Each structure stands twice: as structure tokens, then as C-alpha cells.
């Protein structure tokens, strides 16, 4: 029995003929303006650093085995002290190595100028009042030096990821493809940072993971577009380059829309039901997927149009021909 396709896929046209390149100049100006604004916003007002990068205190909160700690009540009680970012996560008990809901780890910020011991005592009192008698252990403080090292390591991870993506595209395609892909990646990363600043999302290690995921998704979408573009350059050797780019983007459009919508639906559910800890992560990923699709169309491909392509390097039986930016009749 033949498997039926997804019914909603019939809503997408079988073939489109959008003139993407026609609006590439306007989209390029818009992207440059938004990227400049995003870069400026990262310095003023700046990122809302979380505990991982700003420093803070952590402690284990536990009840006797079999008694469950209500994590939401713990989080609300500490939030009421206006200490900034608060993270609560259930962990396994040390004595039994089993996660029965009776032990949690709490991380919170210690405001500058306030006594650390006093703040810890206030936190313990608020939690005890909210959830009853509990045991506190493993109190530790993450200093600013360690936080700075984590921040530097996070930025280094982003830089290495972009560099490796560039090498991959360069070896698989051509230099202009690699340059277009890297510019698209930088575009997506910068605008994602701008979103984080705009909505005052907490920038933590989770957000670094979100940006790395955005880089991977953007590269995946770009590779699909570039693969079809290279194939069409071999097939249509006399067609103007701008027409080949439009054709390739239209042929991959339905796949891009289906993949993007599916991912956004999952992330929307994660943002709604995943709680406060995963909300910023989900929002950043949703934005990154949308902007990654945009960059594949209006950042990566137009750069190839400006650079030009020697089709002889793409097909063994073709002679090198330098393509100009032929205008559409």
C-alpha cells in the first residue's frame, strides 16, 4: 500500500518563479544596516550576561529521600529577592546516585557590592519558607575570572565553527562559494546577537549552544542551495548567472520552507512548555532558522553573482567563461 504524502504539502506550489535577485540590492542594504545596529547594541547597552559569564553562587538543596522538591517554588522564592538570573535544576542524590526529585542544584547571581554570606543566608531563608525544611550543601562561588574565561572560550568556539564551515565549503565548492557562505554565517550570528540584546535575553552557555546550532542550520541550508546552483551552472551553460541563481533558489524553496516550518514548530512548543530555562534558547533558535533561510537567498547567492563564476571549473567539458551581471530583459 503506497504511503500518502503530507496533506499540507499540497498548499505549496509545485513550481515557483520568484525574481529573488531583483531585490538583492535592497536586501543587501537592509542587512548591512541591521548588522551595524546589532554590533553597536552588543557594546551599548551590551549583552545581558548570565551566571556562567558574570559569576555567582551555587548550592545543592535536598530533602530526605522520597520527598520531592518543587523546583518552581524554589525558583519563585529566589526570584523574589531580585538577585538577577536564577537557575534551578534537579539532579541525582549523592548517596544513592538516583534522581528521585529530592535534590536540586541552585545557581544565582550575587549583586555587586553586597556581602556574599548575607545573600546566601537570604536565599536559604527564602527557600526554607517556600518549600519547608531542606538541607543545603556544596555552596560555592563562581568568580569573575572563571566567568571571563568561559566567555572567551564561548567566543572561540563560535570562531572555530565558522572557520571550519568556511574550509568545508571551500573544498567542496569554490572560493566564492566559501566566501558567500561565511558572510552568510557572520550575518546570521551578528543578527542573532542583536536579537539577544533587543529582547534582553540572558546570554549563557545555553545561548552559545543556540548560536552554534544556528551556524549548523544556516550552513546546511546554504549547502543545499549551492549544490543546486552548481548543478544548474553545469546544465545551463549559456543562461545568465542571475537567471541560474533565481532558478536554483526557486527549485529549493519548497524544501527550505518545509524544513524551516517543521523546526520552528518544534521550537515553539519547546518555548511554551520548556519553562523559563529553555525560553531564550528556543527564541534564539527560531530567529536563527528564519534569518538563516533569508541569508541563503539574499546574502550568500548575491555574493556569488557579484564575484562571478568560471563555469569551466564546474564542468570538465566546458571552457572557462567569465560571466557578467547581465540584466534581465
Automatic annotation (TrEMBL):
Sorted UniProt keywords: Cell membrane, Membrane, Protein transport, Translocation, Transmembrane, Transmembrane helix, Transport
High-level lineage: Bacteria, Pseudomonadati, Pseudomonadota, Alphaproteobacteria, Caulobacterales
Name this protein carries in UniProt: Protein-export membrane protein SecF
Organism: Brevundimonas intermedia
Designated gene of the protein: secF
HAMAP family named among the record's database cross-references: SecF_B
Protein export membrane protein SecD/SecF C-terminal domain sequence ranges: 129-308
Lineage: superkingdom: Bacteria
Subcellular location: Cell membrane
Claim: RNA-binding is one of the keywords in the record: no
Amino acid at each position: 500500500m503506497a504511503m500518502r504524502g503530507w496533506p499540507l504539502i499540497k498548499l505549496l506550489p509545485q513550481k515557483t518563479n520568484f525574481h529573488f535577485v531583483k531585490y538583492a540590492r535592497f536586501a543587501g542594504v537592509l542587512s548591512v544596516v541591521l548588522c551595524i545596529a546589532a554590533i553597536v547594541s552588543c557594546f551599548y547597552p551590551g549583552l545581558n550576561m548570565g551566571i556562567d559569564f558574570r559569576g555567582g553562587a551555587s548550592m545543592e538543596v535536598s530533602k530526605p529521600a522520597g520527598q520531592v522538591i518543587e523546583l518552581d517554588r524554589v525558583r519563585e522564592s529566589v526570584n523574589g529577592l531580585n538577585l538577577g538570573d536564577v537557575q534551578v535544576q534537579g539532579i541525582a542524590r549523592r548517596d544513592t546516585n538516583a534522581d528521585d526529585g529530592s535534590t536540586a542544584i541552585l545557581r544565582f547571581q550575587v549583586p555587586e557590592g553586597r556581602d556574599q554570606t548575607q545573600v546566601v543566608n537570604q536565599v536559604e531563608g527564602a527557600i526554607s519558607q517556600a518549600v519547608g525544611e531542606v538541607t543545603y550543601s556544596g555552596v560555592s562561588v563562581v568568580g569573575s575570572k572563571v566567568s571571563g574565561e568561559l566567555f572567551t572560550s564561548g567566543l572561540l568556539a563560535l570562531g572555530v565553527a565558522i572557520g571550519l564551515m568556511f574550509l568545508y565549503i571551500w573544498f567542496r565548492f569554490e572560493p566564492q562559494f566559501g566566501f558567500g557562505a561565511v558572510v552568510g554565517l557572520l550575518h546570521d550570528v551578528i543578527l542573532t546577537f542583536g536579537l539577544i540584546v533587543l529582547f534582553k535575553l540572558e546570554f549563557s552557555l545555553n545561548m552559545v549552544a543556540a548560536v552554534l546550532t544556528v551556524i549548523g542550520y544556516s550552513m546546511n541550508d546554504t549547502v543545499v542551495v549551492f549544490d543546486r546552483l552548481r548543478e544548474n551552472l553545469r546544465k545551463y551553460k549559456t543562461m545568465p548567472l542571475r537567471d541560474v541563481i533565481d532558478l536554483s533558489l526557486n527549485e529549493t524553496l519548497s524544501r527550505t520552507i518545509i524544513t524551516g516550518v517543521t523546526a520552528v514548530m518544534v521550537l515553539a512548543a519547546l518555548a511554551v512548555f520548556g519553562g523559563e530555562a529553555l525560553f531564550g534558547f528556543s527564541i534564539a533558535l527560531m530567529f536563527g532558522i528564519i534569518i538563516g533561510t533569508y541569508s541563503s537567498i539574499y546574502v550568500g547567492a548575491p555574493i556569488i553573482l557579484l564575484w562571478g563564476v568560471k563555469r569551466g571549473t564546474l564542468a570538465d567539458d566546458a571552457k572557462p567563461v567569465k560571466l557578467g551581471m547581465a540584466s534581465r530583459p
